[in-house]
Write a structure and sequence with these properties.
This protein is of the alpha/beta class. The chain has 12 helices and 5 strands. A 5-stranded mixed β-sheet has the order 3-1-2-4-5. The chain is globular, with a radius of gyration of 20 Å.
């Protein structure tokens, strides 16, 4: 594991915090937290697969599932200026963004996975590269993963795994989609973690996805402030485009306006009301490093006994 270097930054505590202050505080918190928790982080084997780079805009982006990642990939693809027929990132079909067998989105946004290790690392060491990721409050992210993967994703079959594990008498191979409760899903996640299995990247702790304590991350965006943070990043990337024609083609590109709709605290309470209190506490423990590194507060959810 790479050595973690702790850097301490002084600030004027009497001055009201600006947006740039908040960004610096996030980086500082990550640096401080890595000094304490880096030994507790096990990096995902799939980490490189979801890291993207562009040598024209000089950036590295680490995709974190269920943190506006589809719209981020849409936006990065549109910023290349290579896509015709679509005016806005939100117009890009989901299949064009993720279907590598038919559309090959990697033609627009490259993966670090394809490069030899030495060609991955230098981009993090070269200060010309802008490195960024976006994170989300863990329990809210878990609800989003449940609603997506168990009710919307046509190729994810985690519902079948859960039924076969916890309700084998209900299993019927002719059933296309099972109704799995959120409490069952939480129990499945916790049991997989307890068994030492690597969790699906959509609910894996975010600190395990991007080697946050080994590499330099210039910007840590939050889903909770997605609009402001996304506008900043898109503006930053546009400013790095040297080709005049490309800059003109992407001048009107903005991050999708309908991104970042958060669920209310009442909604989260309703979702977690059926989850045993012991399981809620186990989730806090599972995501403890995320809470520490990214300054998230535990949401006010009520678990049943």
């Amino acid at each position: 594991m790479a050595t973690v270097v702790c850097i301490y930054v002084c600030s004027d505590v009497d001055r009201p915090a600006t947006v740039s202050d908040i960004r610096e505080q996030r980086r500082q918190l990550l640096s401080d937290g890595c000094c304490e928790f880096s030994q507790n982080i096990t990096d995902s084997a799939e980490m490189w697969y979801e890291m993207y780079f562009d040598d024209q805009m000089d950036y590295v982006y680490c995709l974190v599932g269920k943190v506006a990642c589809t719209n981020w990939k849409r936006t990065l693809m549109m910023l290349t200026g290579k896509i015709a027929g679509f005016q806005r990132p939100e117009d890009l079909p989901f299949e064009l963004v993720f279907d590598t067998k038919i559309y090959n989105p990697d033609n627009y946004v490259d993966r670090l996975e394809k490069l030899p290790p030495e060609y991955r690392d230098w981009r993090f060491k070269d200060s010309r590269y802008f490195t960024f990721l976006f994170v989300r409050e863990p329990l809210e992210r878990l609800v989003s993963a449940y609603r997506d993967k168990l009710f919307q994703d046509p190729v994810c079959h985690v519902d079948v795994k859960i039924v076969r594990q916890y309700r084998p008498h209900d299993y019927d191979p002719s059933i296309a989609r099972y109704h799995v409760t959120f409490a069952e899903f939480v129990r499945y996640v916790l049991d997989q973690h307890a068994a030492g299995m690597e969790l699906d990247r959509h609910w894996m702790p975010q600190s395990q996805l991007c080697r946050v304590c080994q590499y330099r991350w210039d910007f840590i965006g939050h889903y909770e402030t997605l609009r402001e943070d996304a506008d900043y990043v898109v503006g930053k990337l546009k400013s790095r485009i040297m080709d005049v024609g490309q800059r003109r083609r992407v001048d009107n590109i903005t991050f999708p306006a309908d991104s970042g709709h958060r669920k209310s605290s009442d909604f989260l309470q309703r979702m977690y009301a059926t989850v045993p209190a012991a399981d809620v506490q186990a989730l806090y423990k599972l995501y403890a490093v995320d809470y520490a590194l990214f300054a998230f507060k535990h949401p006010n959810v009520t678990g049943s006994t």
